[in-house]
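Progress against Task 2.4 (sequence-to-structure conversion) is shown through the following example record, which the project officer requested during the mid-term review.
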Amino acid sequence: MSHSDPQATHTMADDAKQRTEAAAATAAAQKRKKLFSIFGGVVAIVGIGYGAYWYLVGSRYVETDNAYTATEVATVTPAINGIVADVKVVDTQSVKKGDVLVRIDDADARLAVAQAAADLDRTERKVKGFFANDAGLAAQVLAREAEQKRASAQLLSAQADLKRAEIDLQRREALAKSGSVSGEELSNARTALLNAQASLKAAEANEVQSRANIKATLGAQKASTVLTADTTVDDNPEVLLARAKLEQAKLDLERTVLRAPVDGVIARRQVQVGQRVQTGASLLSVVPMQEMHVDANFKEGQLTKVKIGQPVTMKADLYGGSVEYHGVVSGLSGGTGSAFAVIPAQNATGNWIKVVQRLPVRISLDPKELAQRPLSVGLSMVVEIDTRGQIQAGDTPQQKTAQNRDAKAAAL
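Structure tokens generated for the chain above:
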């Protein structure tokens, strides 16, 4: 009995130990199960939250900081050659459309106007002479026709005189055989015949000359009529040409004054007083600040859902993140930046590496916001496009952006 008691005691201790270890293992398993359940719940919540965020926000908005302000800069160039007499503006100066920027010496232009005016007056006088010549030639034609009729009548008279002289000579010759006519009368009759023949030849020549005179006068009349046909002094081609030269001279005179083509700010002034400028040379530029837009260069994979008319929110580095601009997508470029590079990429070569391309997207800015906080050309911008939004008629970009912001906040 004394020998079995220690063994029983040892057995009971082992059983207690086993039960303790089993209880500890069960508790640890339950704890691990609980932790795994919590972890799984957290993962599920995160997954659901991320999925909701991606569906409601992440897949809806595309953003890039590769965006810069730009505008259609107006370059001022002279239309005539000349020496600069005066420059009215300097860089950074604000101007209005029509303001005088540069004056070119107009002495030569004024002389050209005077010369063109004199040429016009001389041409009008010359054309009036054409019309007067037409009237004179018409009168000459009538006179030539009268001369031709007179010559024809003289020819008929000469022919009749010749016929009469021939008959008279024949009668005298017949009487001379019987001695009834003296020799003197017969001689006079022969002389009269010769005179009649000569008169006929002279009449024939005069009639031919009169016909030639008519043809010459008619030809001159036609030549003069061509210069004035279907026209007046005012619409004659020569007068119109001279008048056009005068208008061109006046236009060149007006072009000696260069004016601002748009409202804006002066930039890149390169002209100086006394400088001789050539036609087409760039003198200065006018930057229309009120027409600023943003060129955002998005990666090609970001443009799947981007369309014209979608609302855009922008921030300028110039004013920091607290200032927002609103706009709308107004267009997508016809090609990537590399496609229009000076040296385009040669993708057909053997060593080809794919590079993600960027496509410029043009974004119009709200004029009111732009007037409150002006932007200069080339400033950096951060751009965010709402690919599910669309500016409706009557909506402003600010209203649409506020609606999108509320929707985003509700999703979050």
